[in-house]
């Protein structure tokens, strides 16, 4: 049986690589003991702002066996999204993860293919695929399975490739070989804390989500508080500052996923173009993009806030 565990784990990792994932790590599906008090404290301090969904399914967030009955393993996967080209310098900025097709669709398809191969090759395996769409603590699982460590900006970091990647999981009812966590390599560096435009990284490893530019430009449905005027560094959807300044992202390499390539107009648009954007252009440039989450009206609100 031990031989099988090793064989199955290798098969899953080889298939993940074939599907284009950056890396794959596996951990035992069990209660996340260390995360429980951290998550509770974070919620109690209201660091999730109006993201009330963060309060739901507290137990399921910490225990995958409550989410997927009979689950034994969490297979964590990373998919690179670092672009080969960036937006025009005289432009309002969009987080790099949203340049191309919405990652939910791209990764869900890859995860379905991976699960199908597991079933075809191994047998009657049950499980579910997760892409940032259910109460799963993606970063905690990725760290537990040795894919990186959680940096001071609270993103997963890897020595070889930095942090510009998506995290996804398969939670399955199959015993596998489990990987071990890696050590933290942030050292005394405080680049992300020093650079955060809204001081959302309140202390090393703790981000006040309700002060983050990504929260204001994507999650917040009301008007952006006026006390943050002039602090957004021209970000109109998301924010990459803490990742851009991280020394480990010197090692980021462009992705090779054609679906993540941006609409050509996106890279060329200037501030003036964004200020005059019509709903038709919005629909064309962001046809299958994650930017649609904020809707045309939300993007307009963000641009108005930056302009004023």
Automatic annotation (TrEMBL):
Any one GO molecular function term: 4 iron, 4 sulfur cluster binding
Note the Pfam families from the entry: Fer4_16, QueG_DUF1730
One GO CC annotation: cytoplasm
Residues bound to tRNA: 221
Q: Which reaction does it catalyse?
A: epoxyqueuosine(34) in tRNA + AH2 = queuosine(34) in tRNA + A + H2O
Binding site residues for [4Fe-4S] cluster 1: 186, 189, 192, 246
Name the residues annotated as catalytic in the UniProt entry.
132 (proton donor)
Q: Which residues bind [4Fe-4S] cluster 2?
A: 196, 212, 239, 242
User: What PROSITE patterns does the database record attribute to this sequence?
Assistant: 4FE4S_FER_1, 4FE4S_FER_2
Name the EC number(s).
1.17.99.6
Keyword tRNA processing belongs to the record: yes
Q: How is the cofactor bound?
A: Binds 2 [4Fe-4S] clusters per monomer.
In this chain the 4Fe-4S ferredoxin-type domain maps to 174-206
Compartment(s) of residence: Cytoplasm
The UniProt record lists the keyword Flavoprotein: no
- Example GO BP: tRNA queuosine(34) biosynthetic process
What does the entry list as the binding residues for cob(II)alamin? 61, 132, 156, 167, 214, 239-240
For this protein, the record's InterPro entries field holds: 4Fe4S_Fe-S-bd, 4Fe4S_Fe_S_CS, QueG, QueG_DUF1730
Query: Which HAMAP family has this protein been placed in?
Result: QueG
Q: How does it assemble?
A: Monomer.
Give the family this protein belongs to, as stated in its UniProt record: Belongs to the QueG family.
| Known function | Catalyzes the conversion of epoxyqueuosine (oQ) to queuosine (Q), which is a hypermodified base found in the wobble positions of tRNA(Asp), tRNA(Asn), tRNA(His) and tRNA(Tyr).
Protein name per Swiss-Prot or TrEMBL? Epoxyqueuosine reductase
Q: Which organism is it from?
A: Winogradskyella aurantia
Highest classification ranks of the organism:
Bacteria, Pseudomonadati, Bacteroidota, Flavobacteriia, Flavobacteriales
